[in-house]
């Protein structure tokens, strides 16, 4: 079994730091486990620190006044979340729930801020991570406001495929209900669009596996050059 310092050294956020800082991070980290459906924090809770996923998956979401859920992110191993709390000390702006049994490293804000003060490279890495998250939010807002649902889905498939070594097949790691929420639609609409993409030869669907058959066609759909 990996020691905590070895896990920390493998986290992208902390790669490139010296072993000394990995040891210091190991001294302040709180190793936590959550069962599937376990609430990590709620919107409005005090932002006492941030988390990095070691194993499992976490859903970040907001709820409307009528209880409708809007998923903001679905994150997996190696990814941090709630980093804003480190710099602002404010409340958490959304809810976080474990989608499956998950192991998380929690870094308390005060102790982590003291490490940042002595390690500028760590601060730069945190800012780079936050900038990437901001860029993702900008893309989400653009997609939800300017693209129709088929275009949002096509863009999601294309981005997901780039993280796969084959770049042709993706395995959905979320349910259709969760994916629909992430794309700002409902499961019934999502199912109809997937079926239509299948009929038009853009993709092939086998359970939770999607194979891209026409990447150019999906790209045109994602860019708004064509309609489904």
For this entry, give a set of tags.
elongated; 23% strand; Jelly Rolls; 4-stranded antiparallel sheet; Arc Repressor Mutant, subunit A; 9 helices; single chain; alpha+beta; 2 domains; 228 residues
Commentary on this structure:
- By secondary structure, the protein is an alpha+beta fold.
- It has two domains: 4-137, Jelly Rolls, CATH 2.60.120.10; 147-222, Arc Repressor Mutant, subunit A.
- 44% of the residues lie in helices and 23% in strands.
- The chain has nine helices and eleven strands.
- The strands form three sheets. Strands 1-8-3-6 form a four-stranded antiparallel β-sheet. Strands 2-7-4-5 form a four-stranded antiparallel β-sheet. A three-stranded antiparallel β-sheet has the order 9-11-10.
- Strand 4 and strand 5 (69-75) form a beta hairpin.
- Helix 1 (4-10) crosses helix 2, helix 4 (109-118) crosses helix 5 (120-146) and helix 6 (149-162) crosses helix 9.
- It is elongated and about 55 Å long.
- The model has no long low-confidence stretch (mean pLDDT 85).
